[in-house]
Amino acid sequence: MAFNDSMRHLPWRPGQKQNYKASAENDYRLSSSFEMPGLGVWALGALLAVCLYCSPLLTGAQIIHPSEASALRAIKRSLNDPMKNLRNWNKGDPCTSNWTGVLCFNQTENDGYLHVQELQLLNMNLSGSLSPDLGLLSYMKILDVMWNKISGSIPKEIGNITSLELLLLNGNQLTGSLPEEIGNLPNLDRIQIDQNQISGPLPKSFANLNKTKHFLLDNNNLSGYLPPELSELPSLLILQLDNNNFDGNTIPASYSNMSKLLKLSLENNSLSGSVPSTIWQNRTLNGTERLILLQGNPVCSNANQLNIVQFCGSQSEDDFTTERSTNSSTDCPLQSCPLGNFYEYVPESPLSCFCAAPLLVGYRLKSPGFIDFLPYENQFEGYLTSVIPDTSKSGIGKGALAGIVLGAIAGAVTLSAIITLLIMRRYMRKHHAVSKRRLLSKISIQIDGVKGFTFKEMVLATDNFNSSSQVGQGGYGKVYKGILTDGTVVAIKRAQEGSLQGEKEFFTEIELLSRVHHRNLSLWLDIVTRKMNRCVNT
């Protein structure tokens, strides 16, 4: 909207009916199409502030590697999920959106991405098959799909996950043979594929599993002979191959070199032949230990002749009955410890007759390999007690940290929105006032017949509207006595900003003055507009 500095003078002659028309409509149209560049600047500034505030969070945003995200989606497509346990596997990032069963590392790797650390899908009533895309989870340490209904073969691509430490596939309906590629997993601590329908021989490549301690392949359809190469496993503690179809010689002589082996379970196979006399001959066993379990094999039909009764006999639970320590708690009064309310005396307490409610921990051992678990019961209970986390330690968990970050982002966005609205409101008020003043300054009156005066002439006639020239004052403005350059004395009424009258009153006053008639009065009506000033010269 441009301002015209030239003054417009519209004269009026007695007896003439003026025809004035305001140009407000055109001015309003211009005002309405005003683009308000200042508002865009303020809005852009507010948006920039939000971006700057959130930029550390956005630049530090952690997402999973795209290949692993694709692999997880392929894994889901290969599975049937009737219980909808994996229903959130199509929302957001697998790591930051906490996909069910997907556990990621807390920090990015050198490639700048997060990676899957564990895939925990146990006991979810899943069926279908295992996708070969599992091999793309190259940073994974734990693969756990125990106790589902997954069928099909074991993908050989699992052998690509060289970081894998736990391979837990037991309790499914897997078929086919064991992939040779599993022997390429140098960090594998436990291989647990029992309770399936795996067939074929044991791969010789399994002899490369130098860190494997637990080897559980029982309750399958494995066949062939026992590979002598397994004796090369330096860390092996438990080798559980019972309830399969192994045949041939009972135990290779090289197995006597496995000095760390605690248990070799070979029950219910088709083994015949002999047991090496040197096997574990230098080991001292207590009354509850049996390192070799052979019952259910043809070789046990000649147990007495082969002197292997200790390997073929059954054990009763009475053999493992242990005495539990007691103290003087039997002398404590019953009324001091309400036993019916789950309280009990603590014999291990240094305080006499100390009564407390114990923390009950239940556990269930599903694998048949734990048939002889009773000798280790006390030790296992002690272990459970030692690993119970100390809840007295304080710290911010992942959930709390995520809540803080999300809260900070939400707060920043809210604050920025409030600031932006306040700025816009303030600008709109100012713009509305300026637009109104500009609109008024554009208004003109059109009357036939002209004699023009400039605003500069009005200033000169009134000595710059000097107060000494003031002869009166009304609600619309002040009236000054002016002397034109030709000596003519005139009265000049000047509208002031903030006056009590608006444009409607201004035009009304002009119309009334135009109707004045007197024989001694010569009326000269001039209207001069300039920016914020409107003058009437009579």
TrEMBL record:
Against Pfam families, the record matches this protein to: LRR_1, LRRNT_2, PK_Tyr_Ser-Thr
Spell out the reaction equation it catalyses. L-threonyl-[protein] + ATP = O-phospho-L-threonyl-[protein] + ADP + H(+); L-seryl-[protein] + ATP = O-phospho-L-seryl-[protein] + ADP + H(+)
> Does the keyword field hold Ribosomal protein?
no
Gene Ontology terms, cellular component aspect?
A: membrane
The EC designation for this entry is 2.7.11.1
* Residues annotated as binding ATP: 493
InterPro entries linked to this entry: Kinase-like_dom_sf (IPR011009), Leu-rich_rpt (IPR001611), LRR_dom_sf (IPR032675), LRR_N_plant-typ (IPR013210), Prot_kinase_dom (IPR000719), Protein_kinase_ATP_BS (IPR017441), Ser-Thr/Tyr_kinase_cat_dom (IPR001245)
Major subcellular site = membrane
Q: Name one GO molecular function term.
A: protein serine/threonine kinase activity
Q: Which residues form the Protein kinase domain?
A: 465-538
Q: Know the name of this protein?
A: non-specific serine/threonine protein kinase
Species name for this entry? Answer: Tetracentron sinense (Spur-leaf)
